[in-house]
Amino acid sequence: MSESRPLYLGPRLRRLRRELGLTQQAMAADLGVSPSYIALLERNQRPMTADLLLRLARGYRLDVSDFAGDDAQDYARRVGQVLRDPLFADIELPALEVADLATSFPAISEALLRLHGAYTREQRELAQQREAPGGLESDPVTEARRFVADNRNYFHAIDTKAEEVAAAVAKAGSTAEWLRAGLGLRLRYLPPDVMMDALRRHDRHNSQLLIDDTLDGASRAFQVASHIAYVSLKREIASTLAKAQFASATAEGLVRRSLAAYGAAAILMPYDRFARAVEARAYDIEALSRQFSCSFEQVAHRLTTLNKPGLQRIPFFFIRVDPAGNVSKRLDGAGFPFAAHGGGCPLWSVHSVFRTPGEIVTQFLELPDGQRFFSIARTVKSGGGSWDRPAVTRAIALACSAEHAPQLVYAQGTDPKALATPIGVTCRLCNRPACAARAVPPVGREILPDDTRRTVAPFAFDEG
Question: Which keywords label this protein (predicted)?
């Protein structure tokens, strides 16, 4: 005959006592035991006896089967779910240890569950605050984006020096030869397992610049140019950073990385030559990408930087979003309101081009205040390169003032006053009353419930 397993119900007993508003002394008096015995039971240092379980059921009118459920099994399940959080991904957590924790230390398990619950709620609130207009001012990503926007994504000293470097690279014959002659570095392309998930790594010990060999040609060139930018544009990047004060070292580091990427693009697409090509090609991004051996996204990004005095080109706004609508990059040179508030309107084609991957979709847009823009949107891919490395698909959009549209190959022959899609900055800041795509009512407008009439829009609101 197998022995029955001792029944430990400490946390459940403690919850019951608190729900009843009893002290340990009061419960002990009700059950005819000592307060110290109740304390031992609650700490799982004594098992629950059948006699005491019956006293609990009679004294507090409980269903014995419900009360005597397996707390340890429930804790093990809940703790196991918590420990699957990516936060703990690098910690080996055997199921047996989780079960031991739940059985032997239920109070610690409860504390862990409460802490993770509080952490999760705080993370959600923090994300909402950062996405909201006027959100957390100290967020380093927001601060870095603001710095770039305040400079209209143009940095004269970096662009000027980058042109000199590009000329030196061209004279050397290739970036690999420039690295060898100028820095004594050997350029090597190695598989991901050797690179240990790095796309680019400077091996100082062996004087090598190592690049992931699964990257496509444009990405390889950009990673090499990024290293060159960090080295050869170091002084210009430092002087640009010195002009601003950052709330944190993280924000400054993010801006430094952005400036190095800016420099890399300027080396691959030197300003004067690129600006002339842009004019000759009528902003044909695919043609420009082939001319400069860069990706569609790299060229689109570079188009937002053409603000050199005397050689300005059309000012563009650039945004990159994933299928869930998260904005991972945002650059403004065109005064587009989404630069401040995020790309949240589902009527903008940047959110629908995932249905037509690789195809360019054009669209005239009109904001509630009457401003009109012309948009070019398309999906782009990153990552991949081998069977076991998944690719990430995102959508990018370039938008310029509608008055500039006729200069673009994508809108030649069209009327800048052509029919435009009415969009909003975000639902909270858009007062269009009949929008079927609306998710929430605008700020400051009272919702008008109507039991006898249903409009196309999900909300009806007052005129105020």
Answer: DNA-binding, Transcription, Transcription regulation
312-427 in CATH: which number? 3.30.450
Are 211 and 224 a contacting pair, CB within 8 Å? yes
Q: Please give the Cα distance from 185 to 207 (Å, whole number).
A: 5
Four-way CATH pick for 10-110: 1.10.260.40, 3.90.700.10, 1.20.1050.10, 3.40.50.720: 1.10.260.40
Query: Global pTM?
Result: 0.74
Cα separation values, 42 from 13, 71, 107, 109, 182, Å: 6, 12, 9, 14, 72
Q: Which residue has the higher pLDDT, 120 or 70?
A: 120
* Domain ranges (residues) in the chain: 10-110, 139-268, 312-427, 431-464
Q: State the Cα torsion 268-273-275-281 to the nearest 10°.
A: -100
Q: How confident is the model at residue 362 (pLDDT cuts 50, 70, 90)?
A: very high
Lateral strand order in the sheet of 186-190 = 186-190, 208-212, 200-203
